[in-house]
Amino acid sequence: MQGKDDLEMSRRGLLAGAATASAGGLAAAPSPAGAATAAPGAPVLSRVSLIVNGQPRSLELDTRTTLLDALRDHMRLTGSKKGCDHGQCGACTVMVGGRRVYSCLTLAVMHEGDEVTTIEGLGQPENLHPMQAAFVKHDGYQCGYCTPGQICASVAMLQEIKDGVPSHVSADLTSAPQVTADEIRERMSGNICRCGAYSNIVDAITEVAGRQA
User: Fold this and answer.
1) Which of 14, 124, 131, 140 is the Cys-Cys partner for 200 at CB 3.0 to 4.6 Å?
2) What is the C-alpha separation between 206 and 4, in angstroms, rounded?
3) Digit-coded pLDDT (tens) for 49-80
4) Count of CA atoms in the C-beta half-sphere (13 A) of 47
5) What is the model's pTM?
6) Given pLDDT bands bounded at 50, 70 and 90, which one contains residue 171?
């Protein structure tokens, strides 16, 4: 039967052996065939392919690049705005696969092959999207900084209602939600307008919803 001293020696021996084996293993481990050895502190790059506003785009990006920075800094699509950079204001809202996302909170490498729509993809000055035209008609902007995100969120939000997705203020979770002012305000609460043009934004969205109905 082993005594306490024997057990202590065994434990020390085990720890020392594991440390030696680990250090030796790390030193002797061969690099994977073909793997690039990045310099200490150098960014890790990855190729990312996206469909942006209907056009295929392929970029080699730092894997830490957000979708917003990829759009603005690498594709020069500066319509999407960097506001808080923390997903609190919604100025960076774009649509990915038809759903609204805060592009400052998601990495570009997470969207390989995805379809991304920015404000530039909805319409152009000579051919405005109905939501863009409604924002102009109802003066749904003042400084305009949040407007691209507001419009992208509005378009995707109306599709959510059309798809029957309930919200916090939906009276009946089993029935198709209706386009009401309460629904619009609740669903758009993630997009902040510092100028306070909310009532005009609701009017613009309501008009487009009525047109679509």
Assistant:
1) 140
2) 80
3) 999 999 999 999 999 999 999 999 999 999 99
4) 3
5) 0.80
6) confident
Q: What's the CA gap between 153 and 91, in Å, rounded? A: 10
> What are the angstrom distances between the C-alpha of 200 and each of 10, 100, 122, 146?
77, 21, 20, 14
Tokens coding 206: 């309501």
* pLDDT score, position 95: 98
Reduced DSSP (H G I as helix, E B as strand, rest coil) percent helix, strand, coil of the chain, to 5: 40, 15, 45
Nearest to 51 by CA among 105, 92, 96: 96
The pLDDT-based confidence of 99 (bands split at 50, 70, 90) is: very high
Task: Write a three-state SS string for 141-197.
Answer: CCCCCCHHHHHHHHHHHHHHHHCCCCCCCCCCCCCCCCCCHHHHHHHCCCCCCCCCC
**Assigned token pair, 38:** 């990045």
Q: Quick one: which of 111, 115, 118, 116 has its CA closest to 47?
A: 111
